[in-house]
TrEMBL record:
<feature type="domain" description="4Fe-4S ferredoxin-type">
    <location>
        <begin position="83"/>
        <end position="112"/>
    </location>
</feature>
<keyword id="KW-0479">Metal-binding</keyword>
<dbReference type="InterPro" id="IPR017896">
    <property type="entry name" value="4Fe4S_Fe-S-bd"/>
</dbReference>
<keyword id="KW-0408">Iron</keyword>
<dbReference type="GO" id="GO:0051536">
    <property type="term" value="F:iron-sulfur cluster binding"/>
</dbReference>
<dbReference type="Pfam" id="PF00037">
    <property type="entry name" value="Fer4"/>
</dbReference>
<dbReference type="InterPro" id="IPR027417">
    <property type="entry name" value="P-loop_NTPase"/>
</dbReference>
<dbReference type="InterPro" id="IPR002586">
    <property type="entry name" value="CobQ/CobB/MinD/ParA_Nub-bd_dom"/>
</dbReference>
<dbReference type="InterPro" id="IPR017900">
    <property type="entry name" value="4Fe4S_Fe_S_CS"/>
</dbReference>
<feature type="domain" description="4Fe-4S ferredoxin-type">
    <location>
        <begin position="58"/>
        <end position="82"/>
    </location>
</feature>
<keyword id="KW-0411">Iron-sulfur</keyword>
<dbReference type="GO" id="GO:0046872">
    <property type="term" value="F:metal ion binding"/>
</dbReference>
<dbReference type="Pfam" id="PF01656">
    <property type="entry name" value="CbiA"/>
</dbReference>
<protein>
    <submittedName>
        <fullName>MinD superfamily P-loop ATPase, contains an inserted ferredoxin domain</fullName>
    </submittedName>
</protein>
Length: 286
C-alpha cells in the first residue's frame, strides 16, 4: 500500500506527520518526494547503500569549433541565457530556439545532471530520496524514479509512506497518481483553506482516495469549522484534527519523530488518526 502525504502550501506540518505515520508501521518504506526540501533522512542514523544520477533537464551547449560569433542565438533567446557565445545554465530553459537560428549547427541540447538519487539504509528502514543540483527543479520523472526505488525495497505487504511536495505542480501529480490513498495536511488559516481546496480538487481529478487532517486546529477554531464544513459538503474524509503542541518543536530540535514523546497531545492525535485511516481503508475495500 502507498500512502502519499501532501499539502496545498508549505509549513503545514506535512513532513512531521508523514514521519510520524511511518514510525507507527513496522518496516515501512519511506519515499521523500519533497525533493526541494528533503528532510526525512535527517531524523535517522543511516548510510547510503546506493547512489545514481538523474538527468532531467536539457541545456544548450555551443561547440566553439563551429561557432562564428554571429550572436543570432543571443538575439533569439528569450531568457537572456546566452551572452558572447556562452550559455548560462541557470537561465537556459532548453527551449531549443537557439538551435533553430544557428547558421552553422554549432548548438545542441545536452542532458544535464539534475539530482543525485540515493537509497539510504537507516536504523528504521529504507528511505528513497534525492538531492537536487543548485538551480535545478524537481520533475515528475524524478518523483517516479524515487517511488520506483521505494517499491523495489518494499515487501509485498509493506507500507510505503510518500512525503510529497507542497502545492499542485508536476511533482505533486507524480506523487499522488497510482497511490492507494492521499492524506492532505492543512491548517486553519485563510491561505491554508484556499490551498487545501486546490489540492483536494487535484486529488479528485485523479480519482484518488483522499483524507484530510487539520494540523494545529485549535489556533483558529472558526477557520477550522470552515474547513470542516467544506469537507462535509464535498464528501472529503476529515480523518483527524491535531492540536497545537510545543512538543512538536522540541521533537524537531532533537531530531526525533513526535511519536516518541508519549505525553504529547499531537502524538496521541496522530495515533488516533492512523487508526481512523486504517478503518476507512478497510471499509472502502470491502
Amino acid at each position: 500500500m502507498e500512502l502519499t502525504v501532501i499539502s496545498g502550501k508549505g509549513g503545514t506540518g506535512k513532513t512531521t506527520i508523514a514521519l510520524a505515520l511511518s514510525e507507527l508501521v513496522k518496516d515501512a518504506v519511506k519515499a521523500d518526494c519533497d525533493v526541494d526540501a528533503p528532510n526525512l533522512y535527517l531524523f535517522y542514523d543511516g548510510r547510503d547503500i546506493r547512489k545514481e544520477y538523474f538527468y532531467g533537464e536539457k541545456k544548450a551547449v555551443i561547440d566553439k569549433k563551429f561557432c562564428s560569433g554571429c550572436n543570432e542565438c543571443e538575439k533569439v533567446c528569450q531568457f537572456d541565457a546566452i551572452k558572447d557565445s556562452k550559455v548560462d545554465f541557470f537561465k537556459c530553459e532548453g527551449c531549443g530556439a537557439c538551435i533553430l537560428v544557428c547558421p552553422h549547427s554549432a548548438i545542441s541540447l545536452k542532458e544535464k545532471k539534475t539530482a543525485d538519487v540515493y537509497i539510504t539504509q537507516t536504523n528504521k528502514g529504507i528511505i528513497s530520496r534525492a538531492q537536487m543540483e543548485v538551480g535545478s527543479e524537481g520533475s515528475g520523472k524524478l518523483i517516479t524514479m524515487l517511488r520506483s526505488n521505494a517499491r523495489k525495497f518494499a515487501d509485498g505487504n509493506a507500507l510505503i509512506i510518500i512525503d510529497g511536495s507542497p502545492g499542485i505542480g508536476c511533482p505533486v501529480i507524480s506523487s499522488i497518481t497510482g497511490s492507494d490513498a492521499v492524506l492532505i495536511v492543512t491548517e486553519p488559516t485563510q491561505s491554508g483553506l484556499e490551498d487545501f481546496v486546490r489540492v483536494m480538487e487535484l486529488c479528485r481529478h485523479f480519482g484518488v482516495i483522499t483524507f484530510a487532517c487539520i494540523n494545529k486546529y485549535d489556533i483558529n477554531e472558526k477557520k477550522t469549522e470552515e474547513i470542516e464544513n467544506f469537507c462535509r459538503k464535498n464528501d472529503v474524509y476529515l480523518i483527524g484534527k491535531i492540536p497545537f503542541d510545543d512538543t512538536v518543536m522540541k521533537s524537531i530540535k532533537e531530531l526525533k519523530p513526535i511519536v516518541f514523546y508519549e505525553g504529547s497531545k499531537a502524538n496521541q492525535a496522530i495515533r488516533q488518526m492512523w487508526d481512523n485511516i486504517c478503518k476507512y481503508i478497510k471499509y472502502l475495500n470491502q
